[in-house]
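Run: sequence + BIS(adenosine)-5'-pentaphosphate -> complex structure.
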Amino acid sequence: MNLVLIGPPGSGKGTQASRVALAAGVPHISTGDILRRAVATGSMLGDAVRDAMSRGDLVSDEIMSDLIAERLADLDATVGFVLDGFPRTIDQALALDALMEERGLLAVVELSVPDDELVRRLTRRRETEGRIDDDEAVVRDRLAVYLRSTQPLIDFYKSRRTLLTVNGNLPAEQVTERITLAVDPIFDKYFDSVAGHID
Ligand code: AP5
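>> structure
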């Protein structure tokens, strides 16, 4: 399974990516988690991205594309992956295209959740987890960045007929079920066609 989850901040990408990846036996690759770990350990990468992240801005396409190229080259990702937080721009999507050569089918799921629910989820998380970019003003900036830079990816993948939209405004278990119901037949059909080709 090669799956990308796209959605605004708080739409449940991380929650769903971890569940779907576990069920499929592939790694869950969260660019936000990788960057937050880099900031926490004070690595060179962390120093380079700290300011952009605290403002809710995007880290540069070059840094992100290199980071994902390196991560997808790891052995555990040869069987597939669930990407959470990448790509976020058209340039990143083009970089992923280049990395997908010889890797089979890529499915893209958009999680759709209304803005007021996103703000409610993230300000609640701010109280429990203390993520600095969950401050309400920064959340609104992250939403604006999503609309400007990442929303265009929806049309990009729609035009390739690889986009599936799932209602993310349901209890998490129901969202997982809907993602699985949407994605499984696509990969089943793909594997059947590859097997037929080999026969
Ligand atoms: P990242 O960590 O990817 O942040 P994000 O996209 O803003 O996403 P979140 O983690 O806030 O939300 P989510 O959609 O994963 O939802 P979650 O499951 O956590 O990126 C952080 C920053 O890193 C970016 O702002 C940028 O600076 C940088 N960055 C990362 N990738 C980059 C890239 N490719 N290019 C450039 N810069 C990049 O859920 C949110 C909350 O809602 C949780 O509390 C959860 O428990 C709750 N929740 C989840 N599902 C449900 C549900 N169904 N019902 C009720 N509550 C739910």
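>> summary
The longest strand covers residues 107-112. The two ends are 22 Å apart (CA to CA).
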